[in-house]
Amino acid sequence: MASIDLRDVCLDYPLYGAYDFSLKRRLLGRLFRQTSEMRTIRAVDNISIEAKAGARIGLAGPNGSGKSTLLRLIAGVFPATSGEVAISGNIVPLLGLGAGVNLDFVAADNINLLLRISGRKPTPAILDEIWAFTELEARMQRLPLRMFSSGMLMRVLFATATAFPADILLLDEWLSVVDENFSAKAEQRLRKMVEAAAIVIIASHDQGLLRRTCNRIINLDHGRITSTVALDPPIPHHLELTEITA
Amino acid sequence: MIRIEPPMIGLNAPARRPSVLHIFKVYYPDLFGGTLTVIRDICASLKDTFDAAVLVCSRAGGERQIVVNDVAVERVHSFGDVLSLPAAPTYPWRLWRRIAEHDLLALHAPFPLADLVFALGLGRARPLVVHWHADIVSHAALRFLVEPMMRRTLRRAAAIIVSDPVLIETTPLLQEFADKCHAVPFGVDVEKYDRPAAQADDVNARGRLVLACGRLVPYKGFDVLVRAAHARNFEVWIVGEGRERDHLEQLIREYGLQDRVRLLGSVSESERVKLMRIADVFVMPSVTNAETFGLAQLEAMAASRPIVNTALDTGVPHVARDGLEAITVPPGDPTALADAIETLINDPERRRRMGQAARHRAITKYSTSAFKEGVETVYRKVVTEEAAAKDAGSSAPAPRPRTAGLVGAIQIAAALAWSDVRHRYVRSLLGPFWMSIQMAIMVAVLGSVIGHLSNASAVARLPMLAASLTAWTFLNSVVLDATTALQGSASLIKDRALPPVIFLLQCTFRQALFAAHNAVVPLILWLALTPRDVGGAIAALPGLVLFVICALGVCLVLGALATRYRDIKPIIESSLTLAFLASPIIWTPEMIDRGSTVMRLNPLTHLFAVWRDPLASGHVATTSVIYVLACLAALAVAATVTVAQLRKAAFWI
Fold this sequence. Notes:
The complex is a heterodimer.
Chain A: E1 3-14, H1 23-31, E2 40-52, E3 56-60, H2 67-75, E4 82-88, E5 91-94, H3 107-117, H4 124-134, H5 150-161, E6 168-172, H6 180-196, E7 199-203, H7 207-213, E8 216-221, E9 224-230, H8 238-245
Parallel strand pairs in A: 3-7, 3-8, 5-6, 6-7
Antiparallel strand pairs in A: 1-2, 1-4, 8-9
Helix pairs in contact in A: 3-5, 4-5, 6-8
Chain B: H1 9-12, E1 19-23, H2 34-45, E2 51-58, E3 65-68, E4 71-77, E5 81-82, E6 85-86, H3 91-99, E7 104-109, H4 112-119, E8 128-132, H5 143-156, E9 159-162, H6 165-170, H7 172-175, E10 181-183, E11 209-213, H8 222-229, E12 235-239, H9 245-255, E13 261-265, H10 269-278, E14 281-283, H11 295-302, E15 307-310, H12 316-319, E16 326-329, H13 334-345, H14 348-365, H15 368-392, H16 405-425, H17 434-453, H18 458-488, H19 490-495, H20 501-518, H21 520-529, H22 534-564, H23 568-582, H24 597-601, H25 603-617, H26 622-645, H27 649-652
Parallel strand pairs in B: 1-2, 1-7, 2-4, 7-8, 8-9, 9-10, 11-12, 11-14, 12-13, 14-15, 15-16
Antiparallel strand pairs in B: 3-4, 5-6
Helix pairs in contact in B: 3-4, 4-5, 8-9, 8-13, 11-14, 16-20, 17-18, 18-20, 18-21, 18-22, 18-23, 20-22, 22-25, 22-26, 25-26
């Protein structure tokens, strides 16, 4: 059963590069009893979130309020500085689609590698299924990705990233595909993926989107929770969407 | 619900029958026996609802693909039997390749060669039914090796079919999975054993013909039967062939029973039916629980024969019950066996009564249609459940990603490394081996230069020089590569939440694969220019393993440090050049001062010595081994700390 339990979690983000951390500075600093300057920034400040299956959580807040960092903390990218993090379930972070892509490789190899990176075993059947979703010609599977237009590349990456369901789905902004014909289909697939996941957390600036999709909105500012708004269950949109696409 | 187009399109098409792959160690025409009869009967009786195929091993050469009774049989070459198992090294591979072509896998256990495939987690995408024919009883000492694999197979199985409910209670391994066990008793085609109307009475008043039937293997207990015949006056005919034949013949000679005990060898099916009809008593003398059911005794029951069987913890005494259809004696007891046989031989009325009871039981409890229905129900249920699960998307092709743990990390690192190697081939002019050619040129140039510097024969030193350069190139590239690995994979670490340690493993794997390309050069030179001392090469392997492990340790530690502190990278770069010059990599022994402090303290000297010395002279200095092991211990501590710290690597990049 998927669940997320964050208790009084803080994350201090060390600011390497912005301050002098060198050995010289450390020794001299100690020697002259220099007051320690602020070398970290508290990106997540005392946050507690509890989510069980069915939770659809929206993270809202201005830039730099810690939305993405919190998502990465839940994904396990950053370790918490203090507090307890207990997560069960298989997490699929859709934080960026471009990671791990090699433009020199043919599309099929890229898809296989991306599947392996997410711990899936690629089979011809899975590849065909992904390729069918992209609606690209079959022979393009054998072309290197650098020959693809950005729209076609996006189709391939989107189809691969969303091919499998997740227990816990983390989205940094709603994945949008800027391709008129494809975006409706992509939207539908993402919606289905959101429906299938036990827990979904979406970070977004788009309040409308969060209201449509989520049943709880957490407003963040400077790494803190300023307010939590519980909403009624989201209205299922997919029926309407299927009618449009049908 | 996420709709993933079902990858197995065939499953939903009503026109196509689902196909079953039967997995066993041997099949017709190489052998005849109970299990094979069962597989054949399943294939034949389910042919309207399931397409069957069989994958087995075969010692006989000849056709790899044959058709037996309308069933496609693929035979994998085996070099003979080792520990009762076919030595068919390619079987697991073949099996793995075949799995995807079928909708259902039917494993006829025990067959550890197939367990190997399932224990490795291959073939997860297809449902598995295990037909549990027997536990492994022979070679019990090796059981600890096989049992975990069998357990994994059973855990993965969707259903387990046994021939008798008692097996579920008496087999510890099956007890663990009792909830998915189904008891489906084998069936016998009774009509085949109907006697022609002309033949009046089937019980011979002076009868003394005892029949036994089965492969001549130890667990069948035919030696007990031969011993039982000693000092009695009944005749014993044993039908079957196998590796115990010589032993049994010797035993018969020793007891002087040549006139009363006969080994008939393999006989045709119709011949066997006839023998069953003329025999007076049928004996099932099996001595171990490897005999789970005793299909032969069921056939004898269909032929209205009274049975003598043994009190095993399996279905054997349940199929023919003591006092009703059989006399059951303790296994391995020749006297008790002989007494039981004589009791029946001396009592025609009892033989008749038991024979009738036996046939009645075969008709009512062990019909072929009940067996067919039982198996078909289980198969159907499993295939339907799988299809439903696929439709629901809950177990889409791979049920769960396997990123967890070290194994997952290594798998991903290996996949990435392999992809890197392939990347080197892409758009290359000379193909995969441009790396090797580069190494060959380096060896040629350096070899000629050094040959002029020192007086030693340059050609004789070339293989060692090439090996040293390959090893150094590996170490050098691993370290250099590690310093930039984490930054190069920033997006995978931050956006895909992959553990950073993967990318340091990837470095080592990738460079090891490149080194394998380069290693072609020293290998060819070694084969061409030296007396090919294989013993020395084998002695060098442990040292080489130490070398690679050290490289991995250095990679982890320096990779993390260089990412955290950016000035480490240039320091490492300049140190590597220095290390190359200060280590005996290209220098010949006579060119260097072995006693120099730098040489002695330089860990690289020893790291090269542990594998190079055995290769050159067959032995290695103890100091070098101790030095390397000490370095390894230090590296292990450092690497452990590093891996713990790597959790923070996302902050550094």
